[in-house]
Amino acid sequence: MNKDNPLRKELEKYLQIPFFMVILLAVMNGIVYGIDTTSGVAVSIFLVVYLLIVLLVYFRKRPNIMSDLVAFSFAHGSVQNELIRELTIPYALVNMKGRVLWNNQAFFDAAKSDKKHMRKHIQHIFTDITLELLQMTPEDEGKRELHIYEHERNYRVEIRRVQVESVLKDALEEDVRNEDALFAVYMYDETDLVVALAEKEKIRMVVGQIYIDNYEEAMESIEEVRQSLLVALLDRKITKYMQNADAIIKKLEKDKYIFVCQQQNLELLQQGKFSLLDEVKSINIGNETPVTLSIAIGINSESDHYAMAYEYSHMAMDLALGRGGDQAVVKNGEKIIYYGGKTQSAEKNTRVKARVKAHALKELLATRDKVLIMGHKKPDIDSLGAAIGIYRLAVMMDKKAHIVINEVTSSIRPTMNNFLGSTVYPDDMFYSSEQALETVDPNTVVIVVDVNRPAYTECEELLAHTKNIVVIDHHRQMGEVIEHATLSYIEPYASSACEMVAEILQYSIDKPKLRPAEADAMYAGILVDTDNFVSKTGVRTFEAASFLRKSGADMVRVRKANRTDIDSYKQLSEGVAKAEIYMDDFAISEVPTDGVDSPTVLAAKVANDLLDVENVRASFVLSKIGNVVYISARSIDDVNVQVIMEAFGGGGHGTVAGAQIEDITIEEGRERIKEVLRKMHDDGDV
């Protein structure tokens, strides 16, 4: 054994104790001599005998004690080695280069490999245990953990750093002597646990709701004597579909249902992409309006609190209805999955909702002093027109209002010139983001128009400085929404934000008065978003346009203000010329960015023009600004480009949508669009 062994030193001290006792006895013997000489001589004799015995024991028995200690040590080490070797938990020692130095039988069995391969790099044995896992930082505290799946088994792997003492270095192989550490690898088989958790997840209960989107409209479109038959057919179709999924379903109201099923049955519904959406639309017993459904499902995978799953189903239903209905939304915690939504949302003839929202907005403005209005980044004429309409409402209610705009693009510059420098409008009508952030306080109302995603707003930070937030938008909602809005008015059926604001003005103020420049801006917003009243127009669109016309909008003046200069027209023609027809139905093109004031607006115009090409069902035009590629998507009716753009993190309408992709080239963007179109076509989604 090493002479510096701590145990040896302790044993040496123990054996030397009798020698210290001799010194004590000698002192005592001197004291006895002082008292009585005869007694002192007797004690001296006993002291000599004691010393001889101590010397005999020390020099004769000490080697035997050391030998017994060494034997015990080796026996103890052998027992430990045997226990580790027979341990049922796979265990191995690897060096810093990842080479396996030693392993027990359980590790060998788990590797399912012959012995000659057991001294290779551990990644060759278990592919998920990489060399990078051995490069530990101080934050790891010498330990790492991961879960792997190898040879049809699940393992929880613990890797622990083991410092190599000098005494162990002498005993290990030669190639370990220069290493600073070894790594102990423990593998805990958790296959049964994983299987049990998976089974538990399958039988977890999920909560869902079904709403009939257009119950009243469908009933009004059929003879009264057949209405009960239509209701019976709907009930039978919905009930049978859910019973096939082993679900419990209950009708709450004439157009609302609630159901509960196991998550494994939900997976069957998802695989079928909720075919019930198409099945109910096929019901036709004379009803002119096809029936559409919205399905919302909530899953609380973090716990078994089904009340939270029920709340998630409500959130999912709000999303489904906010996106126009005719779709299924599954909300699993923060994850949201959409199905369906292929048809265009139908225009609602009733104006009850518009009147209620207008009244609520009026009451909110009446209790606040300042109003800040903003649209989306790189605003278009619809965003600006809607903001100007809200600005007029605030002014008529004697409120101080400002419109937040950071960048004046070519598409809105002609309209902006009617307000900038005008003696009729104040100099602070338009604010930058910095000015708005300096002005906002808890008594300020922030009104967001033509956008419902916080990241797309002109100044996202503004939303965090007040609790009084109003959202007015005509785009479909996605998972990312402006949270805690005091008032949210989102209607995907509307042609434009200007149409919605025009209705709000009529219901908020008796005989509202717009100035001609304001009416022009709002009219231009409707004109551009509907492609000159061709796309996504309804009765209410023309009624809103009629109101603006009566308020002083001049169609000739609007047309002149939004004309294109010759250079932009040439660039537009270049974008059309670069178009590629893909799969016989889709036009994909790009627009130049050099010398173009607003490439995204140009891309939108090119996309609209490409729809006039024969057999083109949808168009996609790309433009690049900085490191971001913008996609403008348009369709006529049967292709829902909003669903396609959601695959890129974007959104919009069924016929007008867009997306932004960072850190890719135009050509890569083209290829990604083709991949998505091909996949969705094969899946039957387009």
Note down, in words, how this protein is organized.
The chain has a 6-stranded mixed β-sheet with strand order 7-8-6-9-10-11. A 6-stranded parallel β-sheet has the order 14-13-12-15-16-17. The longest helix has 49 residues, at 37-85. Helix 20 (566-577) packs across helix 21 (599-610). The chain starts with 5 loop residues before the first helix and ends with a helix. A hairpin with a 2-residue loop joins strand 3 (143-150) and strand 4. The chain contains 23 helices and 23 strands. The model is unreliable at 166-179 (pLDDT under 50). It is an alpha/beta fold.
List its salient traits.
686 residues, alpha/beta, six-stranded mixed β-sheet, six-stranded parallel β-sheet, 23 strands
Helicity level, as a percent range? 40-55%
Proportion of residues in β-strands: 15-25%
Globally, the shape reads: elongated
How many strands, which pairing sense, and closed or not: the largest β-sheet? Answer: 6 strands, mixed
Structural class: alpha/beta
User: Mean pLDDT score, rounded?
Assistant: 84
Poorly predicted parts: 166-179
What does the oligomeric state look like here? Answer: single chain
Strand order of the largest sheet: 7-8-6-9-10-11
DSSP summary: helix tally: 23
Gyration radius over CA:
40 Å
End-to-end distance: 79 Å
Question: How many strand units?
Answer: 23
